[in-house]
Amino acid sequence: MRPTRLLRPSTVVRAHCDIPCGIYDPAEALLAAKTVARMVEIIGQIDPSSMAIADRNRFVRCVAIKEQHAEKVKHEVQVIWSDYFKPEHLEKVPELHTKVWNVLKLAGKNKQSVDAEAAAALIASVQEFSDLFWSTKK
Fold first, then answer.
1. What range does the domain containing 110 cover?
2. Which pLDDT tens digit goes with each residue over 69-105?
């Protein structure tokens, strides 16, 4: 056994950046929310009575992508919330925790359902979070 093998970690952990690098941008969360809404739209166009394999495959792929991107919204917002925002930001944006909680709940709702109103609310909520984030950068 090589000595360097003993130093290799047994678990690989991935994170945005815990240095901290200071590079944060909610654009990926917003893009993911828009992807959720688009998948909801596409799913709504699929004939539910169709037995065609292509339609069933398209439905399954759209649902998977919708759920992956709803989870991405949660991840991106949580990273910015936990790594970027500091107590001094809360003084400027006291409703921050509630706004983040709402985004996370809406993302979860979009994972669980195919609801155009919930998808639109997710986009609006992420946009509001983005606006709050950028307001602290001024």
1. 25-135
2. 999 999 999 999 999 999 999 999 999 999 999 999 9
Give the count of beta carbons closer than 10 Å to the beta carbon of residue 132.
18
* Number of other residues whose CB lies within 10 A of the CB of residue 66: 23
Count how many domains the chain has.
Answer: 1
CA torsion sign for 36, 37, 38, 42 is positive
pTM score, whole prediction: 0.83
- The domain that holds 50 is classified in CATH as 1.20.120.400
Q: 115 is written with which tokens?
A: 């609801």
